[in-house]
């Protein structure tokens, strides 16, 4: 495992700022892998973020898994070099976190997104619940801030878990 301790808020802010240009899955993956490329180099320098571009809106609007969660899981698998036991351990923690806490759990300083309990981890389930609760449309600023903050949260929690895993390996 080629990994160094990262600052969760710093990496998460990159993802927050990449969205909506790169959408959720790619923003999460890009922020983590790009930061590791800067600090570690290979193999991260050779991994293009566009491999996650399919993940937007629950896999190109097919209402699959939330792209932010999908991107986080892909980054975990990449960092842990596909080691099934370790990948499953961290992926399970990410998924449980998203389903057990009001989301988004984290946001950049000064950003106050609407928080909701997630009904499931599908993009449509999450976004529909927010739109219904807030009586807003898909292009509303509340939805955009919510999705940007879910993206931030996915990176923040993933970096916390990877840092913890790194400590446990020493």
The largest beta-sheet arranges its strands as 1-2
Estimated structural class: mainly alpha
Helix share of residues?
55-70%
Count every beta strand, where a strand is a DSSP E run of 2 or more residues: 2
Poorly predicted regions are: none
Would you list the SSEs in sequence order as H and E? HHHHHEEHH
Total of helices: 7
Molecular shape: globular
Q: Approximately how much beta-strand content do the residues carry?
A: under 5%
The profile of the biggest β sheet is: 2 strands, antiparallel
Chain-averaged pLDDT = 95
Rg on CA atoms, Å: 15 Å
Q: N- to C-terminal separation?
A: 12 Å
Descriptive overview:
It is a single chain. By secondary structure, the chain is mainly alpha-helical. Helices cover 60% and strands 2% of the residues. It is built from seven helices and two strands. A two-stranded antiparallel ribbon has the order 1-2. The longest helix has 28 residues, at 141-168. 38% of the residues are buried.
